[in-house]
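Box 4.2: Ligand-aware structure prediction
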Amino acid sequence: KTAAASVRELRVGYRTPDGPLWAVDGVNFDIAPGESLGLVGESGCGKSTLGRALMQLMPPGGATYGSVSIGGEELIGASARRLRQRRGEDISLIFQEPMTRLNPLMRISDHFVEMIRTHKPRTSKKQARAMARAALSQMGVPPTRADHYPHEFSGGMRQRVMIALGIVLRPNLLVADEPTTSLDVIVESQILDILDDLRGKEGAGLLLITHNLGIVAETCDRVAVMYAGKIVEIGPVDQIFTDPKHPYTRGLLASTISLDTTELHSIPGYPPNLLDPPPGCRFAARCPYVMDRCRDAEPVLTEANAGQQVACYLYPGAGAEVPADITPPS
Ligand code: SF4
Ligand code: MG
């Protein structure tokens, strides 16, 4: 079966007055149809940039390298026309604040008609409206509300509308970037249930970008932990939450458990300046287990457990042998 998404050696760079900056620096992962991958990490780690790179939605001056294949078709290097076509049809991005993505002067149904007919020009307006009503009711929005304007909806209802817009063309991959951050807890859990339901029923892959590990634990099959532009650990959620390997993952999990906060502040120190990253492990300056070799060369992702990969010299295979006097954290 074709992967919903297959990402290889993805790099996203910006030219700055101080030189090139790699916001995403050599990332690899797959998402199977119907699978959800959570992407976590501190703000600025590159997770939103990665999400946008999957859609080839880059801010001016940004460039992507490597491979992003969605439903078996390469996106990097595709023409602007082809990209427009595939956004919405094969890949949909669901944002944090839906209000900014809806035109306040257009009825909800007209957003659907425009979107559907851009991608499927031969769909009649009548057909498009019927598709809109079906997608809305699938999201728990009464179809009668299709004729309302965006401001007539609550935040939670607007997010449902956005998701309905995102799925109406049955994309292979949904990318949701902090989709519930501005919502209250009850609405949040409803939205998460909807996303969960969707990938089950529609077989869409889901990349869920969030700083909230609780949401990942509830919603995702696998999780990727990002630090300073790189994935430092990736694997099944139950495995990583019960047996995290990377010192950064361990710090993240400890901070969430002890502080019950949505921000990840409790690991002392800061990520490196990406304009001048250190030559070795990017977590070295904050790592309680740092060794000399960590500062010399970068550790690479290596299998630590079935399906669980970690980039850290504490584990055999990450580029060199574990020294005898080091006991990996257990
Ligand atoms: Fe810490 Fe070294 Fe592992 Fe990096 S490679 S996380 S510095 S032990
Ligand atoms: Mg972000």
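In the box above, the bound molecule is magnesium ion. Confidence is low (pLDDT under 50) at residues 258-264, 320-324.
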